[in-house]
Every structure is written in C-alpha cells, then in structure tokens.
C-alpha cells in the first residue's frame, strides 16, 4: 500500500499552499498562481493575431499556420493520460476524497518546481525556435511539444488552487472558473499578438512570451520550494508510450488531411490519397493495440459508460458549428471587409463579454439553481443560432463593423456555456476518477482538436464550392449587352464582383449553420420533456430496428 501524503490543508487553518516559502503572504499565494496560469495560457507556437504579418515575412500559407496551430492542440490533447493514468488504488475511500487534487501521475513523480520550470523552459524554447526557422517539420514537432508543456503547466497551477476556488471541490464551480482563465487567454493572446504586430514586429509577441516564462521560472526559484505531495515518488513505468506516439502521429496525419484538403483538391491529390490510407492503417493498429495491451494508453471501455457517446456527439456538433470563427469570419474580415489585423483583433475582443455572460449563466444554472442541463444545452445552441442569424442578415461589404459586436458576443456566450457544461456533464457520467480522466482525454480529442480541424476542412470546402457555383451562375448575366467596357474600369469591377460573390457564399454557409444550430436547439428543448426523453431511451438501436424490420418483411413475403 502506498503511504498517504500529508494533507494540503489542516482543519481550522484555511487554505494553504505548502510549496511557497514562509515569507510569502498566504493571501497572495493563489493569485500568484493565477498570474502564472495566464502567462502559460497566453503562450503558443504560432499566434492567430499575426497571420498576415507572418505570411508577409515568410513563405507560409494560411494552411501552414493552421497546421501548426492544430499540432499544438494535438500536443495538449495527447498529454492528458500522462497526467492522470494511475497504477494503484487507495483503499481508504475517505482519504481518496480528501486527496483528490493530488491523484495525478506527474504530480506524484516530480516536484512542483520541476514541472513548472520545465514547462516554462520548453515554452520559451518553442517561441525562440519559431522566430528563427521556417522548416515546417521542425516547427510541427516544436509546436506539438509546446502544447504538451502548456497543458502540463496549466494543470499544475490550477490543480494547486482548486481548493481555493471551491473548498468542496464542486465542479459546477471549478469548470466555469477554469474556463474564465482559458477563454480569456485565448482571446487576449490573439489581441496582444495583433497589438505587437501593429506597433512593432510579429517576433515581439514571441519575445514577450519568453519574458513571461522567465517570470514563471523566477517565481518558482525565488518564492517556492521543491514540493511533491507524495513522499515516495511514483515511477512512470507502465505508461503505453508506443500507443501514445501512434495516436499522436494519427492526429497529425488527420489534421494534415483536413487542413490541406481543399488546397490540394481532396482525393484528386495523390498525397492525400496516400495519407488517407496511412490514417486508416494507423487507426487499425491503434485500436488493435488498445484492445490487446494490458495497460493501454486509453481504455476504450470508456465509451460504454452512460452518456459518454452522446456527450462526444454534442461536443463534436458544437465545435463544428463554432468553427465559423476560424474560417468564415477570417474570410469575411480579411477578404471581404478587408480589416487590418489590429482592428480585427479589437473587434474579436467583444467575445469576452459573451464569455463572462456564459460563465455567469453556467454558475447560476449548475451551482445556484441546480437545474437539469437539457435546457442549458438548448440555450448554448440557441446562442449559436442567434450568432448565425445575426451574421447572415448583417453580412455585407458596406456594413459598419460595430454591427458585428452582438453576434461575436453571442458566439462567446455559446462557447462558454457548452464547454463548461459538457465538461461538468462528463464528470457526472463517470463513476470513478480514473474513468473521468480517461473520458476527459477523449473529450479533449474532440473538443480541442478533431472537430475543429474537421470543421476547418468542411467550411473551406463549402466556401470553395459555393464560391465557384455563384461565380458561374451570376457570371452568365455579365454579357456585352449589359456591360460597356469602354465606360468601366474592368479590373476594379472584377475585384468588386469577386468580393460580392464571397459575401454571397458566406451567407449560404451561415444559412446551413442556422438550420443545424436551430435543429440542435429544438432537439434539446424536446429532450427536456420527461415523456419524450423516456420514450427515446426505449427506441432500439438502428441495427436492432433493421433486423426486426427485415424479419417482419421476410414473413410478409412468405
């Protein structure tokens, strides 16, 4: 039996962080970790607010930069089992409840200084490499490792202040507060990168992050001491590193297919056909090993738990619908309205009021009122519906950009509601801690990575298809009987014509998003009715229904 570590807090003494030195006041210790968490979360491999600046000084395409972004997200997603996979059980259930924040593999193996200093140094090296090379394979590996370090640092910081956020470890409080840090950092880092690119150069954002990582290292060296909650360190033996590498390779191959699909004409490209075969082969090898290895990287039995599959379906639909942010809005602001990066980043900051509104709704719904989540899911997809409708009716080349503030607020509220609520529902569906963390790994595969990459590929394909179709249809009206070439500036006319066709294509795609989000909203409103929800559970699976139907059909034929 593994000896229990000393408790992180003593009854009557309040919240304590034993990793800090005695001279650091207790009241500011959690806030120091919150500041460090923002420093870690503001980091990245390539920054979305610098797309035009990076493209202007390098030979990167937009697909290259998106590939680096998804490589970083893949590194974050794949690292979850490294944090949580355990090889032992506590026999004392009360002790397991008390020491829940410390039930993590890496925290039991290394000290807080080792984890945070390593994460900060890796992130700093990642940013240093990205401004000195354009070699794509090296950048992919660097961004992937940087994503792992980003997750490690964030997890170590937030797990140590969990009891400060919610002394009873109420996940209806912790997950919304966690998403305040995450979503604020996402929007804030994009604006900060655009600000540095506007006033200085795009490399200054990376220099700023290197400086922030020096602050994190300085905090650990000056204010903290080496501390590990487990006196006897836990070995990392038993982790299925081979499957982890195979899953990582599979994720990178899939992201390449989705990101470069439209650029390379999908299956018309020999490269994508080969990579599709490689992806299928890798998927088969991964599933085979996960079923055969004694201690797999992720246990596939997690999908047998109640509500896990529906949660994955909902998070996939939510990420696909919210994928408009990185594709349709980027086309709108860059190609149609032609906003400068700094102005665009200022406009996108209006997502933050929506994020805080969504977090407030989550806290009220889950913690204060403790209502069921069906209507909360409907409210989240309803905000997506409102966002798509507002964008559909306001999308025009001559529109005032202030009119896009309200739809951006709705998008931020939808993301905050769905992300925090789905994570809370996942925790409620997993009966044990290890199953919850395995489910969290699969959840983040879809949430942070797979659905976003697939959404990018789908939206770019739709846009190209609608754009070509609209140019062909409207171009039939441009005849010499309607156009006087001697009285017109033909290059300027064609530029205006192409921009108007882009606007029409974006409207058509937003129309599809309206129907999909409206359908999801009505679905969850219907599931909120107990009679409907009960009868849906009685409906057999489609294979069972098909077998029964074929059996009745065979009897009639006889």
Mind sketching the topology for me?
Elements (H helix, E strand, L loop, with lengths): L28 H13 L9 H7 L4 H17 L1 H5 L8 H6 L6 H5 L2 H19 L5 H25 L1 H4 L5 H29 L3 H20 L18 H20 L9 H23 L15 H15 L5 H9 L4 H8 L2 H19 L4 H21 L10 H25 L3 H43 L14 H38 L2 H9 L3 H16 L1
> Could you tell me how far the N terminus lies from the C terminus, measured between alpha carbons in angstroms?
66 Å
SSE succession: HHHHHHHHHHHHHHHHHHHHHHH
What fraction, in percent, of the residue positions are helical? over 70%
* Number of DSSP E strands: 0
Strand content: under 5%
Can you summarize this structure?
With 558 residues, this protein is mainly alpha-helical.
Looking at this protein, list some descriptive labels.
558 residues; mainly alpha; 71% helix; 0% strand; globular; disordered N terminus
Describe the structure.
The chain has 558 residues and is mostly helical. The chain has helices spanning 29-41, 51-57, 62-78, 80-84, 93-98, 105-109, 112-130, 136-160, 162-165, 171-199, 203-222, 241-260, 270-292, 308-322, 328-336, 341-348, 351-369, 374-394, 405-429, 433-475, 490-527, 530-538, 542-557. Helix 10 packs antiparallel against helix 19 (405-429). The radius of gyration is 25 Å and the shape is globular. The N and C termini lie far apart (66 Å).
